[in-house]
UniProtKB/TrEMBL annotation:
This is HD domain-containing protein. It comes from Candidatus Borkfalkia excrementavium. Residues 268-362 form the HD domain. Residues 173-241 form the tRNA nucleotidyltransferase/poly(A) polymerase RNA and SrmB- binding domain. PANTHER family: MULTIFUNCTIONAL CCA PROTEIN (PTHR47545). InterPro entries: HD/PDEase_dom (IPR003607), HD_domain (IPR006674), NT_sf (IPR043519), PolA_pol_head_dom (IPR002646), PolyA_RNA-bd (IPR032828), tRNA_CCA-adding_enzyme (IPR050124). GO terms for molecular function: ATP binding; metal ion binding; nucleotidyltransferase activity; RNA binding. GO terms for biological process: RNA repair; tRNA processing. Transmembrane segments: none annotated.
Length: 448
């Protein structure tokens, strides 16, 4: 199957004095008969200035030019394209950006600078023909990941390729060959040369690998590659420490690490990172105390450190940390209804996410996809709270700070309102203005 080439690219190809090629994901996905890629990578044996001139003649917009790398960012009003001149890259010990480049007219040289053979198949726009200098078409048909050159060399150049191997393999369902895996293992420490923000971005894409082409549990496959290549030990050593750490067989069929990877595999897309890290406190607790007790609290501390190191967005990190800290609540289903009501109200802003993490945790214990029993119990309690009109936030309370102006100074109103909100968790009928004002007066008298 050929790529569905936009009309503007035909005009751009016609305006250039040399062949214009589409390369990378768009060509790979067309050959694999996958949905069309959203990103368009272009290449040709010409320089950036020539492409800018041709783009103007083709009615395209030049958004950015980087002459030192031969890169031009283009758009046609609907799509964005990235053009790069044929070149060879030279790296500095695993850093993602090449330290220098050498331009070339040789398509094979350009192909060999790329990471995987499946990404090094070209499509000549004007001639409407494929050009495959390295045999990438064969890999796509066989659904195999192989590097464009000796694997150790490819991974030693750019450490980010270690993450791309896991992510692309998961998204595409392509299996890395033995040489590819061996080269990744040999160079796993090169990921240390990559900025934390880039690692976190790739990890996020990997955790949502199933969404790219609709491959169920693809994120689990990608995590297993990170585990097998030991790249996981470099980016998440606190998680990898659970490898081989046994758990009670009556509750768990897997060790701590495998359980965490499977939890992510079973998790809803909203809580993949939280599911992956939910037990990150277990290895520390076992090493320190010889048991897993308290791993939720320790997990919050460790999780916060991990997410700060990875430069995760602060709001996302705080939510993940809270989910780590709440995932064990009422694990045995013995918590009293009054306690559960208070818990739901206190955590109402993330309550749906807590349910998703607990379900993923439950499913990963013994690969049981049935509904977690605790969630069934909580669902009944939550329905009762809703039917009673329980307020879940101060905004839903029938009185506010202005109502307390005559009986409390401003600095004490928040504490009283919080106490009244908590009281209503046990009986929603108490969310009545007259009752709340009477209770507020009583509490105000105690404050005097």
């Amino acid at each position: 199957m050929k790529p569905n080439v936009p009309e503007k690219l035909y005009l751009l190809a016609k305006a250039l004095p040399c062949p214009l090629y589409i390369v990378g994901g768009a060509v790979r996905d067309a050959l694999a008969e996958l949905p069309a890629a959203e990103d368009w990578d272009l290449a040709a044996p010409t320089d950036a200035d020539e492409v800018c001139a041709a783009a103007a003649r083709a009615g395209m917009t030049v958004n950015a030019v980087y002459r030192n790398t031969g890169t031009v960012n283009l758009s046609d009003g609907k799509r964005k394209y990235e053009f790069t001149s044929f070149r060879t890259d030279f790296y500095r010990g695993g850093e993602h950006a090449p330290m220098r480049v050498r331009f070339t007219d040789d398509i094979e040289e350009d192909a060999k600078r790329r990471d995987f053979r499946c990404n090094a198949v070209y499509f000549d726009v004007a001639a409407e023909q494929f050009c495959d200098p390295l045999g990438g078409t064969e890999d796509i048909r066989a659904r195999i990941m192989r590097t464009t050159r000796e694997a150790g060399e490819v991974f030693s150049e750019d450490g980010l390729r270690l993450m791309r191997l896991a992510r692309l393999s998961a998204q595409l369902g392509f299996a890395p060959d033995e040489n590819c895996l061996a080269g990744a293992v040999e160079n796993a420490e090169k990921i240390r040369k990559i900025a934390a923000e880039r690692i976190f971005a790739e990890l996020t894409l990997l955790l949502h690998a199933d969404e790219k082409y609709g491959r169920p549990r693809a994120q689990y496959e990608g995590l297993k590659i990170l585990d097998e290549t030991r790249v996981l030990d470099e980016i998440l050593p606190e998680l990898a420490a659970g490898r081989g750490m046994r758990q009670r067989s009556d509750f768990h069929a897997h060790d701590v690490l495998e359980h965490s990877l499977r939890a992510c595999g079973y998790a809803d897309k909203k809580v993949r990172l939280s599911a992956l890290l939910h037990d990150i406190g277990k290895p520390y607790c076992m090493r320190t105390n010889g048991k897993y007790h308290g791993h939720d609290a320790e997990g919050m501390r460790i999780g916060r450190t991990v997410l700060e190191r990875l430069k995760a967005p602060k709001k996302q990190a705080e939510t993940v940390v809270r989910l780590i800290g709440t995932h064990m609540y009422d694990l045995d289903g013995r918590a009293r209804e009054s306690k559960i009501r208070a818990f739901i109200q206190k955590n109402h802003d993330i309550y749906p996410l807590i349910l998703l993490v607990k379900q993923a945790d439950y499913s990963a214990c013994k690969d049981d996809l049935s509904v977690c029993p605790t969630l069934l119990k909580w669902a009944d309690i939550y329905r009762k709270m809703q039917s009673e009109g329980v307020p879940f936030s101060l905004k839903e309370l029938k009185i506010g700070g202005n109502d307390l102006a005559d009986i409390l100074p401003p600095q004490k109103r928040g504490k009283v309102l919080a106490a009244l909100l908590a009281e209503c968790a046990y009986d929603g009928r108490k969310n009545d203005k007259n009752y709340l004002m009477a209770q507020a007066a009583r509490l105000a008298a105690k404050e005097e």
